[in-house]
Q: What sequence folds into this?
């Protein structure tokens, strides 16, 4: 997600320093992160320094997701939701989730379904929070620090609002596809069930996702 800054100016003010933002040559770098959240809690935000593979994803599940689930859902009633990215559906990751099914449930993402994961709203809020900082990150290290600080400061109401609006979003989505074929409607219905599950508060659904953030660039 690129870090952009919008400026209102007159046509003749394009070279005014007050209407410009300093950058670094060849861009400010990027940071890929994995995060997890639910209706009431912000989980860990993890920096990924290399391409995510099945093996590396399992290390995230075992080293970060599992401890978080064990603390938040000691009764084993938590649900974990993820999309069908290749590392998520790799054999090693699938086997790991099956082996830990007694610790928490893995809510399967319907194939070819629309992306209605609430964590997309969290990523957007995180990006805007970084943009509003007085000092904009120009290096990957600065960007990672800004992401960590902003992640910890996201208000709980953001999580709750994002989850609570899901029934309305799912209903609107179902209305928008009324002209689809019967097979499409059947597939979208599976998606709506997935979205509805994300609204559950007991057990709470955990939503995990990877994304990339980019620093200021030319």
A:
């Amino acid at each position: 997600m690129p870090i952009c800054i919008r400026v209102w100016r007159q046509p003749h003010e394009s070279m005014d320093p007050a209407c410009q933002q300093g950058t670094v040559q060849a861009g400010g770098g990027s940071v890929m992160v994995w995060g997890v959240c639910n209706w009431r809690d912000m989980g860990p935000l993890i920096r990924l320094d290399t391409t995510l593979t099945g093996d590396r994803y399992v290390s995230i599940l075992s080293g970060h997701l599992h401890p978080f689930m064990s603390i938040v859902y000691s009764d084993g009633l938590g649900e974990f939701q993820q999309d069908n990215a290749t590392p998520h559906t790799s054999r090693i990751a699938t086997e790991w989730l099956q082996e830990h099914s007694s610790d928490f449930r893995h809510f399967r993402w319907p194939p070819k379904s629309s992306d209605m994961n609430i964590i997309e709203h969290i990523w957007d809020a995180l990006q805007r929070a970084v943009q509003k900082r007085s000092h904009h990150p120009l290096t990957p290290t600065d960007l990672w620090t800004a992401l960590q600080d902003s992640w910890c400061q996201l208000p709980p109401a953001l999580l709750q609002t994002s989850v609570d609006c899901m029934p309305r979003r799912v209903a609107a989505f179902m209305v928008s596809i009324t002209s689809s074929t019967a097979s499409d409607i059947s597939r979208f219905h599976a998606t709506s069930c997935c979205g509805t599950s994300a609204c559950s508060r007991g057990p709470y659904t955990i939503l995990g996702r990877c994304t990339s953030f980019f620093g200021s660039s030319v």
